[in-house]
Amino acid sequence: MNRRAQFLEVLGIPAEWVPRRLAEASVEVETKVEVATVAVAEVEVEVAMPAPAAPPRSVVIEALSPQPAVQDEAALARDAAIAAMDWAALEAAVAQCTACGLSDSRTNTVLGVGDRRAEWMLVGEAPGENEDLQGEPFVGQAGKLLDNMLGALGLARDRNVFIANVLKCRPPGNRNPEPEEVAHCEPFLRRQIALIRPKVIVVLGRFAAQSLLRSTTPIGKLRGTVHQYEGIPVVVTYHPAYLLRTLTDKARAWEDLCLAREVHDRAGAEA
Ligand code: URA
């Protein structure tokens, strides 16, 4: 085990990705392949990763309508009210929401966490048990991995990224969200995105990706393409909880984050 892996194990951090550009500023020669050490429990694997400064690639922009085809009048009025809210009103509306049955079983609503003027936004599926108890997204093991992934990009939830979920309340027993729950909750997320206006949205996992993009395409096919949500570029990657179980897809997730960084940097250059 190398020194970095030992160090991380002592810290109790299961995995850390550090782009060479950030970790070894003194290295002058750019290589085509990035090697990161991924240490989880007893397993240590060397994963080949693409260099963060990969040459620009052409990206297909897919525009998908976030608007449902049919909505009744009450739902339209509720959507319009939410679409006009500032952060204080939005926070209060989420905290008091009883639009679906999830309000009966929740401990806390989970609005989101981070910089409300961040250029990066991450969107997960729904709070789990720990998130429901603490009122903050991604606070369990998957959250630790997510924080490490963000750290590799120079991002941190308390500094320069905003993290939210499609659903603001926990589905009991962590079951999959119901379409009706998503329909009631989506206006909150849409308003959050409109208030933050991030340069890039990274969507975590199949469920969040398919909900946000109104798609039934499998996640493997949604990855690698830059989608759009209300004019904001969206990059899809695997859910960190899935990555904890599937080490081999960490390299793919790293590719996705590199694509997101490319999209972010390009948006910055055009601004
Ligand atoms: N999984 C999610 O998608 N979101 C959370 O906040 C926690 C786990």
TrEMBL record:
Keyword list (alphabetical) reads: 4Fe-4S, DNA damage, DNA repair, Hydrolase, Iron, Iron-sulfur, Metal-binding
Q: Does the keyword Metal-binding apply?
A: yes
The record's CDD domains line, in alphabetical order, gives: UDG-F4_TTUDGA_SPO1dp_like (cd10030)
Domain Uracil-DNA glycosylase-like: residue ranges: 111-258
- One Pfam family cited in the UniProt record for this chain: UDG
Q: Which InterPro entries match?
A: UDG_Type-4/5, Ura-DNA_glyco_family4, Uracil-DNA_glycosylase-like, Uracil-DNA_glycosylase-like_sf
- What are its GO biological-process terms? DNA repair
Organism domain of life:
Bacteria
Is the keyword Cell inner membrane assigned to this protein? Answer: no
Catalytic reaction list: Hydrolyzes single-stranded DNA or mismatched double-stranded DNA and polynucleotides, releasing free uracil
What Gene Ontology molecular-function terms does this entry list? 4 iron, 4 sulfur cluster binding; metal ion binding; uracil DNA N-glycosylase activity
State its Enzyme Commission number(s): 3.2.2.27
The family annotation for this protein states: Belongs to the uracil-DNA glycosylase (UDG) superfamily. Type 4 (UDGa) family.
What name is this protein filed under? Type-4 uracil-DNA glycosylase
Q: Which organism is it from?
A: Cupriavidus campinensis
